């Protein structure tokens, strides 16, 4: 699929230069036809450095660009650049590998609960997301049905290092490992925090989280990898501890969130390979998936959440606003939270 993609859409692959660019050209047999204004080509370029992307947008070399939220001020107010926040279903998550074969401590529900109290959600919203995000109580984002089944739409966990330490102490994970005069838990085991290189928000959150973990006596390290390496690590190995990731909708239903995050591999879920499993949660997810009764679905999702959140395999970080600055010569662009890009509709018009 990656090397020889095929479909019935308006564009087809011209070439793909790994880690550099993807170029698509018109599909001459596209069923929608080519009457009207449509791009001849679509070029998607990769650039890990934010400064490179920002410069390309300012210079007019890019029509759209991913600008880190903390750098939006660099383009807000610039002539010819549009910056508009859209409500979205996009969520930020911190996946936890619960498989004991990888890390015996992260396999424990008490530890994952403590880690959920160790993340500073509000500071992350301000520092990493520049205020363009909100807290997320669980798998289902705000705006989708049954959001309120998750602790009445309120975060179950808030930033509370004292609570995190108390949970760890009560579970017997004392600070009993001396490293250069500082005491740590877990016999000095280091928890590795992965994120994809070039994602400024995830990098900022990783730095914040590492500092918080150090305060409660947990060693951690931060590792940045390219997307291919990161996804290969997650999907084909157990060699990872925690990973900053995200999710956007494939279809407008909460099943697209609750099932892949909270469901196990036994029901064809566990999309991020966390290894988490609870048979009752699986049964309730399936009940909600296949019922057409709103009351039944709400009850099923509430039961699943109430069980899952006590020993989660994800830290639910934020629900972000969608912001991709673009040049004002791009016409007919609209944001659809379920379909991020539809290049066929766009065209350029210059003054």
What can you see in these coordinates?
By secondary structure, this protein is α+β, with helices and mostly antiparallel strands. The protein folds into 2 domains: 11-85 and 324-348, D-Maltodextrin-Binding Protein, domain 2, CATH 3.40.190; 91-320, Dipeptide-binding Protein, domain 3 (Roll). Helices cover 28% and strands 19% of the residues. It has 9 helices and 15 strands. It has helices at 50-59, 109-117, 121-127, 161-170, 200-215, 227-236, 255-262, 279-290, 294-308; strands spanning 11-17, 21-26, 41-45, 81-82, 91-96, 133-135, 177-179, 182-184, 191-196, 220-225, 242-247, 314-320, 326-327, 330-331, 347-348. Helix 2 runs antiparallel to helix 4 (161-170) and helix 7 packs antiparallel against helix 8 (279-290). The model has no long low-confidence stretch (mean pLDDT 95).
Chain-wise SSE layout:
Elements: E1 11-17, E2 21-26, E3 41-45, H1 50-59, E4 81-82, E5 91-96, H2 109-117, H3 121-127, E6 133-135, H4 161-170, E7 177-179, E8 182-184, E9 191-196, H5 200-215, E10 220-225, H6 227-236, E11 242-247, H7 255-262, H8 279-290, H9 294-308, E12 314-320, E13 326-327, E14 330-331, E15 347-348
Parallel strand pairs: 9-10, 9-11
Antiparallel strand pairs: 1-2, 2-3, 4-13, 5-11, 5-12, 6-12, 7-8, 14-15
Helix pairs in contact: 2-4, 7-8, 8-9
Q: For the record, what is the CATH homologous superfamily label of the largest domain?
A: Dipeptide-binding Protein, Domain 3
Widest β-sheet, arrangement of strands: 6-12-5-11-9-10
User: Strand pairing plus helix content: what structural class?
Assistant: alpha+beta
CATH architecture of the largest domain: Roll
Straight-line distance between termini = 41 Å
Helix and strand pattern: EEEHEEHHEHEEEHEHEHHHEEEE
């Amino acid at each position: 699929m990656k090397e020889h993609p095929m479909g019935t859409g308006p564009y087809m692959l011209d070439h793909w230069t790994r880690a550099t660019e993807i170029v698509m050209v018109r599909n001459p047999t596209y069923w929608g036809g080519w009457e009207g204004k449509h791009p001849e080509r679509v070029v998607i370029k990769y650039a890990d450095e934010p400064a490179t992307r920002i410069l390309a947008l300012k210079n007019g070399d890019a029509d759209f660009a991913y600008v880190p939220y903390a750098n939006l001020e660099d383009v807000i107010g610039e002539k010819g650049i549009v910056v508009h926040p859209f409500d979205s279903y996009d969520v930020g998550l911190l996946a936890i590998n619960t498989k004991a074969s990888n890390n015996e401590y992260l396999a424990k529900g008490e530890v994952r609960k403590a880690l959920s109290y160790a993340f500073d959600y509000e500071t992350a919203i301000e520092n990493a997301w520049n205020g363009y995000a909100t807290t997320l109580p669980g798998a289902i984002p705000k705006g989708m049905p049954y959001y309120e089944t998750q602790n009445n739409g309120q975060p179950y966990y808030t930033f509370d290092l004292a609570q995190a330490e108390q949970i760890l102490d009560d579970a017997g994970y004392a600070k009993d490992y001396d490293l250069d005069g500082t005491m740590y838990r877990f016999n000095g085991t280091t928890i590795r925090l992965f994120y994809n290189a070039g994602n400024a928000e995830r990098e900022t959150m990783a730095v914040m989280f590492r500092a918080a973990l150090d305060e409660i006596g947990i060693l951690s390290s931060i590792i940045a990898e390219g997307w291919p390496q990161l996804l290969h690590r997650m999907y084909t190995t157990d060699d990872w501890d925690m990973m900053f990731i995200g999710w956007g909708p494939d279809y407008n239903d909460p099943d697209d969130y609750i099932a892949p995050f909270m469901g196990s591999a036994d029901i064809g879920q566990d999309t991020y390979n966390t290894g988490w499993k609870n048979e009752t949660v699986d049964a309730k997810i399936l009940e909600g998936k296949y019922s057409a009764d709103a009351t039944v679905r709400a009850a099923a999702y509430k039961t699943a959440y109430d069980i899952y959140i006590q020993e989660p395999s994800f830290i639910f970080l934020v629900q972000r606003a969608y912001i991709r600055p673009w040049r004002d010569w791009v016409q007919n662009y609209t944001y659809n939270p379920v379909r991020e890009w539809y290049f066929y509709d766009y065209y350029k018009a210059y003054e």
